[in-house]
Amino acid sequence: GIQVEQSPPDLILQEGANSTLRCNFSDSVNNLQWFHQNPWGQLINLFYIPSGTKQNGRLSATTVATERYSLLYISSSQTTDSGVYFCAVKGRPDRGSTLGRLYFGRGTQLTVWP
Amino acid sequence: SAVISQKPSRDICQRGTSLTIQCQVDSQVTMMFWYRQQPGQSLTLIATANQGSEATYESGFVIDKFPISRPNLTFSTLTVSNMSPEDSSIYLCSVVGPSSYEQYFGPGTRLTVT
Fold it and tell me: What is the dihedral sign for C-alpha B50, B61, B46, A5?
């Protein structure tokens, strides 16, 4: 299956700071999503972004599929942004990936202090 | 988007017992997925459940331990059998939304085995 690496593993910020999270993947993908897992364990969809750039409020994401990476930008961070951010991809079944399966990175644990 | 509910939201069980987790979706979907998230870890796919056929299990997961039912296009159950403390995890149900691209997750079932 496809390998997904996220960096940094941990990030501690003061409220109001900006940050960039990175996701590298090992093969061509059909789908790339960013999720935020809140302290209660729920996965919140942030972006579906197999390529290009999207913005939603203080968050934006860019995927460069040809270079196999994606970036998640968080601006003016708030304490409610704390949690784990996961990048997940769907590989191509013709290259050994399970049909429909999302392959997750290990996540970035973000802590924002007031 | 797809709205997914799971029952129970959390449970504490004794080793050797079994627990059945229910997943209900607000729309008809072809594929439903069950994931496990062990404490402090990323998400791992247990199996894919299609209506009218046997579930397909990922390496390391077997039907005797994690039997799955998929009686219709909006509902599925996952049973965790003969539980041990190593089964303590969050179990999440997931589906692909109406657009057939973005994937959504239920709120999860937090299981603790004592």
Answer: negative
